[in-house]
Amino acid sequence: MCGIAAFATTKKNTSCLGTIISLLIELQHRGQEASGIATVAKDGTAHTYVSKGTIFDLLGMSSLLETMTVDAFGVIGHTRYSTSGGYGDSEAQPIVVGNDSSFRIAVAFNGTIANYKQIAKELGIKNCRSDVTVLSEAIRKLALESGKDVVEALKTLSSIVIGGYSAVVLTSEPRLVIARDPRGFRPLSYAYNGEEFVAASETSALEVLGYDDWVEVPAGGIISYDGKSVEVVTAPGECPTPCAFEYVYIARLDSVFNGVSVYGVRLGLGYELSKRDSAEVDVVVPVPDSGRAAALGYSRGRGVPLEEGLVVNRYLGRGFIMPPGMREIIAKLKYGFVRSAVSEKRVALVDDSIVRGTTMAAIASRLKHIGAREVHVRISSPPFRYPCFMGVDVASRKELLAWRTMNLGDVACMLNADSVAFNNVETLAKVIGLPSACLACFTGRYPFKGLTVDDLENMFSR
Ligand code: SF4
Fold first, then answer.
1. Active-site annotation holds for 2
2. Domain range spanning residue 231?
């Protein structure tokens, strides 16, 4: 669940750097561990800058400012949340491959390539320390085999990858190519106005910068811009199965994914949750920020007032996308509590999901400590029970609270709550409203023919 962005232009005196930095700031919620950009000048020379931390840490690099003066054809950028390789900046993207200056490529991607070791073996790639290194080397190798054609390379790649990816590729030709895997797990959109080509993981990033006429890259879509025109091709298809968890948690509320509003889905899930609930509660308290829209839907559905009982520390980022060891610390520091909003009240505490349960248990305990009479945890998604191999870092089943037990009484006990309720898988699929979506982390049924969770776990190991 990293964020990726790209920008290329033929306009004179346009700051490629300013645009990419702005896009990455709008995508920061998708990853905070490392940031990076790669530029290619009109003469084909490439520069890469990566830094541990957020895009603001990257901005602190003095050498980055020097590139403001480079006459760039294009730039790609990345905000990292690790799903493979180490935590920190050792696998920061973009990655540049190719010593030969006549054909060098920079790659940034959002996703996970579950069979990257197998691909490395089949293509004879020696550097297989992580899925992004294999993906980058594979794109270059396959492109060289087809006359330096990155579009052909991505078409071939789409038929051999098990996993999910959205990718941006900048070549020294120069050329900018963006692509989404054939099942379309991860989002990617772009806009082209005749002079500027711009792409980002989420539509909200494009809209904030004024690119309102964005188009979502279709599942299997490969879009190429060479400074003169845009070429659109689609790799031979699979049934699209976009990630349901993007709607539940990952994507920004103001984004659209596969033509469906993220806000609409979250509101609808809260409303659905309220329809089957008879617990007596006095107030609805959202877990900010990602639980807010669901709490609003739940509050409206139950006719119970919404209260801001939790105050989030915005400087700590998202707990879910923190490396192990940091999550417990973040769970403690992240929230302040509004005593007057919850004291002596029976609280419906609404969040989007429970993955490990670390944060929710800490919140429920604290609410009771400051005087809440009862805490009823309401979760707008189904129990998250299986790992993801398509771009979300839950590598082991043992980490998942709902894998350890599906008994709601036990879950409530583990969360220090009086009761707990979830939406079911059918409701989630119904509210999203697409013909198909990936629900594998809730069902254990992965959209790769014949592959079970055990097969995928064996295939992909850190
Ligand atoms: S397994 Fe879950 S998180 Fe992963 S792509 Fe499918 S729905 Fe999304």
1. yes
2. 3-240
